[in-house]
């Protein structure tokens, strides 16, 4: 299954999602690695098997093995960090904000790909997972690394559209069973 196949599965009531996915597949403000890594990291964060399979098939041959692993690693580490840091941010008790996380996060320091690309993928996953603290942290790194607001917005648009496609397909599957 490819991204086009995925788009065909999206019902008419969600036509805007289908159109956005097509437009974003042609996004030119990001490098190919940044774009397709963002698609993959967001798909993994979406937790929808059909979306993961379609995006995984689409990125095959478009990402190096290192970039493929890096996008997966961004989704994995942010799956943990977004829960932890969102919780410490939401808790009213200030104690937790001052405590070290005591969680292994070595991949952030050495992701095996360009640091800005990894941080961009982490930003996209943080958007899907709704962690404002992580969004701010990763946005600062990518902007300091030379990315523009337009490039950050492109990654956020990819994350939003991939997540919306996953929500639609998950809902349709639940309604049909």
The CATH architecture category equals Up-down Bundle
CATH topology: AhpD-like
Query: β content, as a range?
Result: under 5%
Q: Kindly report the average pLDDT value.
A: 95
H and E string: HHHHHHHHHH
CATH superfamily grouping: AhpD-like
Walk me through the topology:
Blueprint (H helix, E strand, L loop, with lengths): L2 H7 L5 H11 L6 H15 L2 H11 L5 H26 L4 H4 L7 H4 L5 H15 L2 H13 L4 H28 L1
Question: Care to describe what's here?
Answer:
This protein is mainly alpha-helical and 177 residues long. The chain contains ten helices and no strands. It has helices at residues 3-9, 15-25, 32-46, 49-59, 65-90, 95-98, 106-109, 115-129, 132-144, 149-176.
What would the keywords be for this entry?
177 residues, mainly alpha
């Amino acid at each position: 299954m490819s991204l086009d196949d995925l788009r065909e599965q999206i019902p008419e009531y969600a036509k805007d999602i289908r159109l956005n996915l097509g437009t974003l597949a042609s996004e030119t403000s990001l490098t190919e690695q940044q774009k397709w890594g963002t698609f993959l990291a967001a798909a993994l964060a979406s937790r929808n098997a059909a979306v993961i399979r379609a995006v995984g098939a689409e990125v095959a041959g478009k990402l190096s093995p290192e970039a493929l692993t890096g996008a997966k690693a961004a989704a994995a580490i942010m799956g943990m960090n977004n829960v932890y840091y969102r919780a410490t941010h939401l808790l009213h008790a200030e104690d937790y904000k001052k405590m070290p996380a005591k969680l292994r996060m070595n991949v952030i320091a050495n992701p095996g790909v360009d640091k800005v690309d990894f941080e961009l993928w982490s930003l996209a996953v943080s958007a899907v997972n709704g962690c404002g603290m992580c969004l701010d942290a990763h946005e600062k790194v990518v902007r300091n690394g030379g990315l523009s607001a337009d490039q950050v917005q492109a990654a956020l648009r990819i994350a939003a559209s991939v997540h919306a496609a996953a929500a639609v397909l998950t809902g349709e599957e639940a309604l049909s069973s």
